[in-house]
Write a structure and sequence with these properties.
The protein is α+β, with helices and mostly antiparallel strands and 358 residues long. It has 16 helices and four strands. It is elongated. This is Transcriptional regulator, Xre family.
């Protein structure tokens, strides 16, 4: 149950709305009201919109013209101003939790000089009309972020995560994507491994997106803004499968393992948002273990596991084995480290560091 003290209005209804309703019942025109109140016609319109305050003198005239008591109109005005202030305070607090500057820098939003303009632009970005509606959409069970309620991500960074995910949705909407086919996508994944050996993201990204789109998967790369620790996400949105990557770690082994990990979620689990975050490195969720195992077996098939474990850890052997697997040497080093066959501080010079143009 919601206590009355916890109520936060999702709107502020100006007393002018009540003036309009009562005037309509009495068949009063705007000119009639203006004459009775002794104001210009334009001022009545401003009264309807809440931009003109109801003073004691105006409350008496309203009581005489449209009805109700002076006390009613003064109380109605006071309640409206309180609700309006609550909404403004709530909006300012919500805006402060968002990475607005980064959203402008990355081209997600246009700059704004006033708080009200910033609020309007951000609400438009999320496709909602109020902050409460944003909460209903993004902090509901259906959005998926509540699955992270017990982690620092949800408590401190849910707004930044939501902004990152929303930009992923908007970017995915612009990609021509076919119908989702789990069967075709699963068959495609091993064929994508040669792309890991392409050195520049500007070369492999369009090919990755095109081939995945044919199976109904939109692959989007969205830079993470301030406060967003996400490295990857997988979900279905408006009937479209989305793999979203932030390239937070900028290395080939991290980028591609995250991609195949998210692909594993789409193949194995379709029921919710899956979000990989640097704030959750020790997660031991069954679905995450399954996605890790799936990604590892795509990169290094089970038939090659024995050869991998027997592989000498010298430069030539690693380069040769990586070529035979059609993966980059950096990914092979990452898999050796992941399996505990090589220390985390060894052979990292074989990992490529990507340079992304935003």
């Amino acid at each position: 149950m919601t206590r009355s003290g916890d109520f936060r209005p999702a709107w502020a209804s100006p007393p002018g709305e009540t003036v309009r309703q009562l005037a309509a019942k009495k068949n009063l025109r705007v000119d009639d009201i203006a004459q009775a109140l002794g104001v210009a016609r334009e001022d009545v319109t401003q009264l309807f919109n809440g931009k003109v305050h109801i003073t004691a003198a105006r409350a008496k005239r309203l009581a005489d013209v449209v009805g109700a008591s002076v006390h009613f109109w003064l109380a109605r005005e006071a309640q409206y101003r309180r609700d309006l202030q609550t909404l403004q305070d709530d909006g300012r607090q919500w805006l402060s939790s968002l990475p607005f500057a980064d959203m402008v820098t990355y081209g997600w939003l246009k700059a704004a000089t006033s708080p009200s303009e910033r609020l309007r632009r951000v609400l438009e970005f999320f496709g909602v009309e109020t902050v409460d509606e944003w909460r209903d959409v993004w902090l509901s069970d259906g959005a998926g972020l509540t699955a992270y309620r017990t982690s620092p991500v949800f408590a401190a960074q849910s707004a930044s995560l939501a902004a990152w995910l929303r930009q992923g949705e908007l970017t995915a909407a612009e990609l021509p994507v076919g119908s989702w086919s789990r069967h075709h996508f699963e068959r495609l994944l091993p064929l994508l491994k040669p792309l890991t050996r392409v050195r520049e993201p500007i070369e492999f990204t369009p090919r990755l997106q095109e081939q995945c789109a044919a199976c109904g998967v939109a692959v989007v790369i969205v830079r993470a803004p301030r406060g967003c620790p996400a490295s990857g996400a997988a979900r279905f949105c408006n009937g479209k499968a989305i793999i979203q990557l932030s390239v937070r770690y900028l290395r080939d082994d991290s980028f591609w393992f995250t991609f195949f990990h998210e692909a594993g979620h789409l193949i194995l689990h379709e029921d919710r948002l899956f979000l990989e975050s640097s704030d959750r490195p020790d997660i031991d969720d069954l679905a995450e273990r399954e996605a890790n195992q799936f990604a590892g077996q795509v990169l290094v098939p089970a038939s090659e596991e024995a050869a991998l474990r027997a592989l000498p850890h010298d430069y030539r052997s690693i380069m040769r084995f990586a070529k035979n697997l059609s993966i980059s040497p950096g990914i092979l080093v990452g898999q050796l480290q992941y399996r505990g066959l090589v220390r985390q501080d060894k052979l990292n010079f074989l990992k490529k560091r990507y340079s992304w143009s935003w």
